[in-house]
Amino acid sequence: MIEMKDVYKTYSNGVLAINGISIKINQGEFVYIVGPSGAGKSTFIKLMYREEKPTKGSIVINGIQLENLKEKEVPYLRRNIGVVFQDFKLLPKLTVYENVAFALEVIGENPKNIKKKVLNVLDLVQLKHKARSFPDELSGGEQQRVSIARSIVNNPPVIIADEPTGNLDPETSWEIMRLLEEINNRGTTVLMATHNKVIVNTIRKRVITIEDGKIVRDEARGEYGLYE
């Protein structure tokens, strides 16, 4: 599903953020990306959905070669990847329904299918009753569930979650994790960057540890480690 071969990323200021990473992630896996602040986790995640381009190396996601992708082809890539952010990134002037529907409208989905898909996914995240609410009328956990609904409404094979519980209280964080687990159990590959030691050590999944832009640990049912 995801393969990196000898990937490097150097920013224009000379910072080497990713230093020779090679990795394979199979379809249906749930993988945590952990490590200290500044280790390169965010860059690693951004390379996956072409927010950043590698300086050197090869990245393939769901059969799509990323490094040579033309700008006009990037939207097609992102149809195959759902992205969930720490700060939700919802459109404040759109309702819950409209935020989720927007993800389908921008890819030209048939209007007849949009209502069915949006209501189905809002049902999955238990927010159908909030369809007409605006983001500022929701709790942080509800906003994150809308963000997840938006990311999966097109049924992508891969979900990339960048600190999805970072702004949430512990109880709400567990709700989000249960939802991500359910999505993973339906066959979706989930890649999650996190600093949440308790979650990683409780819900045991594959753990990839990045330090100084390198993978230093890759364990099938790993633990978080000693990072803050």
Can you describe this structure?
This protein has about 230 residues and is of the alpha/beta class. Helix content is about 30%, strand content about 25%. It is built from seven helices and ten strands. It has helices at about 40-50, 75-80, 95-105, 110-125, 140-150, 170-185, 195-200, and strands at about 1-10, 15-25, 30-35, 55-60, 65, 80-85, 160, 190-195, 205-210, 215-220. A hairpin with a 5-residue loop joins strand 1 and strand 2 (about 15-25). Helix 5 runs parallel beside helix 6.
Q: Note the total helix count.
A: 7
Q: Main sheet, how many strands, which sense, barrel? A: 6 strands, mixed
The CATH architecture: 3-Layer(aba) Sandwich
Helix fraction bin: 25-40%
CATH topology call: Rossmann fold
Number of beta-strand segments = 10
**Termini separation:** 30 Å
**Uncertain regions spanning at least 5 consecutive residues:** none
Radius of gyration, rounded?
17 Å
> Domains counted in the coordinates: how many?
1
Question: Briefly, what CATH class?
Answer: Alpha Beta
What would you give as the CATH superfamily?
P-loop containing nucleotide triphosphate hydrolases
Order of helices and strands: EEEHEEHEHHHEHEHEE
